[in-house]
Q: What sequence folds into this?
């Protein structure tokens, strides 16, 4: 069941009609049942994995009481980490690591007879695994008390709007909203409907039309021309942003109509001025998770410059591997880890130190434009690494980028990309200028109405209505 399908529209309408007739506790029952129905629509067999993970981490949370000996609490937390990472490792990475080992052994003339299992990847397993792990870690760190109610905890883990593609919510943020009665304000109703419409526009008009351009280019073998690679990478950049941020917007919008508030997962990432700034704006829930639970646990920047650079590289390597069982994802993570390390080294050499993204600023200088353009180019090459299937394809496309004529066909495709994506750029320009992602709601009523009509008619006229799955479902 995907957000951009008629089936989901029927599901959500029925859900809301029932939801707002129930008291708080029955609302949680309904959310849990609806979440299992929503997830089970893909493959009901994998519901058992969610349920087992839920029960284990709920039990672990109960046994992380601060009054218990610290050694016991450490062993209990380790149980949660081993269990969750073991689940994730088996279903997502078993075949990848076994195949990689067989290939490596063959280089030395050894051909081990190891069976490679054909394991179906449960949808969204990386998201709900990281969410469940964050709860036990937060309880261990005494940032949140253990949840006594299995129903509340199960609702927190399986909360259907963000269950399969984020944002990754933490127990400190979402669990109290599950446990407390909720009301839907008029502002939430307005913001929720706007986010759903804008998210559908990003998915159906931008992402799915960009897929029609990018997918055929990346699907065919070499050789490639400069124009083909330029068009393919640029189209994919807008495809993955429209697809993933569109999902997050719809998830936030649906949640608001239920009285919940999910975190913002994207903050104008293509207007980032540095690698650090990019990762404070792109997939914020994952980058903050990796920072707080992996980078800090590795030592962060507490043990000197060299160790800091190593920690950055390891964090991004594992972040790349989180995205998929492929060495190209590892290369993408290594690429961004290197960008972060080099940027940090340059800033320290200049005596400025690492900088936060901070609030959006109104000033537009030549230096700002240059920084945004340079970072966008670096990001585009990262998307080439991310999207390619093999290292041979990466090499072939990289060689094609050395130069050459754009060509009339590629120029026409760039025009198509501009046709679908310029409205997004214009809206984000207003958001950046105002320093407010919710600038829509501050506009005069007639401007808002015109904007909503534009989104609606664009979806009806140019939207792709084949119910294409979201890219991050595979992660």
A:
């Amino acid at each position: 069941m995907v957000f951009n399908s008629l089936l989901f529209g029927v599901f959500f309408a029925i859900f809301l009609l029932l939801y707002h007739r129930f008291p708080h506790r029955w609302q949680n029952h309904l959310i849990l049942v609806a979440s299992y129905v929503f997830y089970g629509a893909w493959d009901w067999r994998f519901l058992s994995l969610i349920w087992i993970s839920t029960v284990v981490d709920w039990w672990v949370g109960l046994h992380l009481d601060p009054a218990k000996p610290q050694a016991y609490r450490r062993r209990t937390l380790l149980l949660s980490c081993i269990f969750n990472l073991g689940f994730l490792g088996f279903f997502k990475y078993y075949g990848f690591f076994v195949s990689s080992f067989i290939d490596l052994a063959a280089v030395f003339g050894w051909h081990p007879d190891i069976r490679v299992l054909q394991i179906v990847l449960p949808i969204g397993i990386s998201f709900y695994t990281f969410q469940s792990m964050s709860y036990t870690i937060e309880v261990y760190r005494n940032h949140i008390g253990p949840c006594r109610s299995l129903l509340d905890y199960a609702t927190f883990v399986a909360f259907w709007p963000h269950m399969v593609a984020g944002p990754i919510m933490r127990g400190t943020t979402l669990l109290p909203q599950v446990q407390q009665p909720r009301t839907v304000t008029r502002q939430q109703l307005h913001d929720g409907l706007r986010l759903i419409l804008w998210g559908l526009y990003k998915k159906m008009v931008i992402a799915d039309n960009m897929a029609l351009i990018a997918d055929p280019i990346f699907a065919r073998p070499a050789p490639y021309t400069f124009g083909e690679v330029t068009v393919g990478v640029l189209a994919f950049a807008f495809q993955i942003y429209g697809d993933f941020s569109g999902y997050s917007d719809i998830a936030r919008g649906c949640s608001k109509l239920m009285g919940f508030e999910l975190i913002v997962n994207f903050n104008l990432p293509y207007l980032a001025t540095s690698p650090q700034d990019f990762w404070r704006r792109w997939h914020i829930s994952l980058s903050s998770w990796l920072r707080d639970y992996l980078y800090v646990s590795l030592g962060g920047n507490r043990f000197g410059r060299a160790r800091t650079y190593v920690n950055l590289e390891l964090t991004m390597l594992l972040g790349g591997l989180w995205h998929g069982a492929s060495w190209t994802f590892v290369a993408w993570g290594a690429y961004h880890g290197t960008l972060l390390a080099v940027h940090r080294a340059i800033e320290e050499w200049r005596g400025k130190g690492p900088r936060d993204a901070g609030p959006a600023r109104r000033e537009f200088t030549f230096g700002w434009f240059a920084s945004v353009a340079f970072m966008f180019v670096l990001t585009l090459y990262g998307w080439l690494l991310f999207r390619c299937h093999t290292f041979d394809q990466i090499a072939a496309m990289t060689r094609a980028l050395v130069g050459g004529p754009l060509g009339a066909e590629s120029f026409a495709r760039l025009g198509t990309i501009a046709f679908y994506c310029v409205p997004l750029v214009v809206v984000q320009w207003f958001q950046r200028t105002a320093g407010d992602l919710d600038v829509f709601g501050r506009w005069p009523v007639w401007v808002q109405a015109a904007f909503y009509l534009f989104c609606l008619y664009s979806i009806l006229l140019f939207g792709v209505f084949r119910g294409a799955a979201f890219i991050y479902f595979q992660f």
Q: What stands out?
A: Residues 58 and 149 are 9 Å apart (CA to CA). The two ends are 16 Å apart (CA to CA). Residues 356-361 have pLDDT under 50 and may be disordered. Residues 187-474 form one domain.
